[in-house]
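User: Hey, quick favor. My workstation is busy. Could you predict this chain's structure for me?
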Amino acid sequence: MEDNKQTTHDILDQVQEAAPESIHPLLDFLISNGKMILIGIVAILVIAAGASGYQYMQQQKELKAQSELGAILIKYSGTKKAEELATFLVTAPAEMKPAVELALAKAWMDDSKFMKAEAVWAEIAKGNDAMAPVASIGQAKCLILADKPKEAVKILQALKNTSGDTFGSTIDRLLAQAADKSGNTQLAIQAYQGLLSNNPAQKLYFESRIKELKAKL
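Assistant: No problem, here it is.
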């Protein structure tokens, strides 16, 4: 009889250790109310099985999505790759969407569809604070390539005021290009001057560009 009690306690200890933390209060109650132990154990097993089943389904869903994304990246190129990525993005798991958006932006850029890429970069900038600076740089680059330098200048100037020094050189390079293309020579000169102190290896190039631009004034 004593052995049976000990075995029961051992089983309950094992069940309690295996159960999620959220179920422990229920287990404590059941242990102190012997008549309900069997019913309680069945309920716990059903809950645990349901949670495990859900996690398994989620894992399988993510693995399937990862496999599908990999197939798109390997199998397609050009416009077809971008179109497939755009379609996949609609149903992609939330955890994968940032990666898919980046792949989509790059695919449109590789296909020289710069305004389509710019729209994707803009969505990334709006929806992901951590990626916003990089996305804004991508957006500006696309606008320059799409011959919309004035719009690029607006984005870059706003970014320069909010991003600090982290992307300073990259922003100044693009700002110099965009300002020059848009006819804002003075702004282009300022951007190249900002590059002089941070890029000593290219000092001669930047000085020559500044000289050329000053000749236009």
